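Hi there,

I know you've been waiting on this one. I reran it after we fixed the sequence typo, so this is the corrected version. Both the input and the resulting structure follow.
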Amino acid sequence: MKLLITGGCGFVGSNFARHMLEKGHDVIILDNMSRPGSEINLKLMQKDFPNLTYHRRELDDIQELLQKIDVDLIYHFAAQVAVTQSYQSPKSDFRVNASGTFNLVSSTDVPVIFASTNKVYGDNVNEVPLIEQDTRYDFDGEFGKKGIPESFSIDAKKHTPYGVSKLTGEMYVREFNGVANRFSCMYGESQFGTVDQGWVSHFVISKLKNMPLTIYGDGKQVRDLLYIKDVCRLLELQGNNIDKIKGEVFNIGGGFDKTISLLELCKLLDIKPDFADWRPADQKVYYSDITKAERVLGWKPEVGVEQGIENMSNWIKENIN
């Protein structure tokens, strides 16, 4: 199979490119190299896979590239990925996530598998009844331990510019017979987390470099964590079943069994954080109901949180100075 991966030098893109290259597939990657760490990921991929095809392009130029190449499937990961940045520059956020995605799907008949986000649910998530349990929040009521399903309302009062742009992008993807994944928190090797995005990696890097760490809010925020190897298995399954799932949306995360709060991760890593005021639109609790992916694709996460963090920590020690 011949694949095009946009954002192929980023965290998800580089891991999935490796996953498919190791299985003998022909992979073309596109990236504008704007994300810190992209150069390192590209260098490591080119070292291991000298025949990798790479194009340094913007999504604005995707139509020209698609006229020159012939691929069977497109995985679309190129994006502006930070909620904070979307507030600072909403026009740029829209250009990349909404307009850029439209440019892609409207320029090809090839199916597109898209990385969307749980932020499409906006502040509706915080309306789910909560109870405090020890050092963390938990769902109490309709969704219980199953988490947020695909049917959960996206008609929120507030989404953040990022949530709006990604929701717009996924609607265009599905309109053109692609597939959208509303991802929760992903983590793993090749992730260069910052205070704005990639919080698990940011925590680990801060610990390993003995850097101060600030938590915004009380630290009881709960997320379900999904290790990158489990992400790659899902994406491969979706590609193998693309005719069956065109037009669908999936909530993808670690599920209730792989939830952790910020304070719990600090305890696991032996970090003593500082605290600051809540940031806009920070969800107090989010974890995905992943039963649709299991029912339709036979997929569910396999790697536990502690094992995944150990794997990521070892990679960071070897590759991030």
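Quick highlight: Residues 2-319 form a domain with the Rossmann fold fold (CATH 3.40.50.720).

Best,
R. S.
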